[in-house]
Amino acid sequence: MNSWPRDPVSPLWQRLSAERFSAPKLEGVRDADVVVIGGGIAGLTTALELRRRGRKVVVLEAATIGAGASGRANGQVIAALTRHGPDAIRKTLGQPFLDLLAGAADRPFGLIEKHGIECDARRTGWLQPAHSPGRELRARKMAEQWAVVGALAGPLNKDAMAARIGSQAYFGGWEHRGGGHINPYAFTLGLARAAAGEGVAVYERSPALALSREGGVWSITTPNGRVRAPRVALATAAHTGNLWPGLAQTIVPVTSYQAATAPLGRLAETVLPGDEAFSDTRQDLRYMRKDRDGRIVSGGALALQFAAGTRLPRLIHRRLIAFRPDLAAATMTDFWGGRIAMTVDRLPRLHRTPDGLATWIGCNGRGLALACAMAEVLADAVCDVPDEQLALRPTPLKPVPYHPFVSRTARLILPYLRWQDSREI
Prior knowledge:
Largest sheet: 8 strands, mixed
Strand content: 15-25%
CATH superfamily: FAD/NAD(P)-binding domain
Helix content: 25-40%
Distance between the termini: 34 Å
CATH architecture: 3-Layer(bba) Sandwich
Number of strands: 20
Strand order of the largest sheet: 6-7-5-15-16-17-14-18
Number of domains: 1
Structural class: alpha/beta
CATH class: Alpha Beta
């Protein structure tokens, strides 16, 4: 097993990307209608939506496009939240947000088609296998709820799930035929290319160092320049700093690692033979999809992060063997990681101020479809749409209690979650 260096982006997704994009640093002073801080999927889709509405938009990316969580994800397109089904979502966040989420998978695939983004898009469906009989009952209810709201969802019994994933390791589950998977790095680059082509001014290596209000206009300073605008959309997710005091304390940033096998050859035809993606029902989530060359791409978290480049691929390899013993011959060849923004209740949040600053935060590992769907909501929020007309109602900042301690120790709960998973019936 190898130990890999830390790459600025996913090495696998970068190798497989046909998309290319580069942008200059911000130099000097610029004026705009809206400044979007963060050049990931959330920021770029919001910029495209604002540009569609005729706004003059500047995007500031601290590093390079695709270097953050957007370009390091597993790439699964999932129009569902991690814990909450439709009934719970309707009760906690309201029917408008449920309607938005139900069609969330349409957003990335629609953008891919509209802008000709080359990102190995496969709308082949998403599966949630149940790791215990009790979870199978819950999965069946989840499928029924999603079907009621119009999703292409349905339950799968044990034999049907085994045929779909190529393994007898699960007890059934459910499917969402509107989901799928993409190369997320290529998708992010394609969004940046599309935004620039629509007239959005995109700047790389231009971190926002300070945010201040001067004479009714926001002023955002970077190492080499400044942007002035009456409206600001913050799309920094787990990389949120202190630009908006208190915002970073509302989420727990978690490192999610990914690992990929070498191409499996003919064996790949029997693993996920329909080329779906899947994420199971465990609290310590197990998930996988294939890439275009027949690699398995999977991932997970670690309670202790030392030697992650060695330990995580070994963990994934053991899980692949548990999934299918003949995957023992698979060789792990790529490793990378990225930070995701988690909320305590696993629900997203929308925040805004009366003077034109807005953000949404809390992807909770389901950010790809959700970020694309939330672009319209964030654009509405910075364009002064009244609270009652927003698909996700704004809420005040609510810091996580004991945030400095929790943010450093949250991953230590993993052994307990794995123990709970092992005891579920």
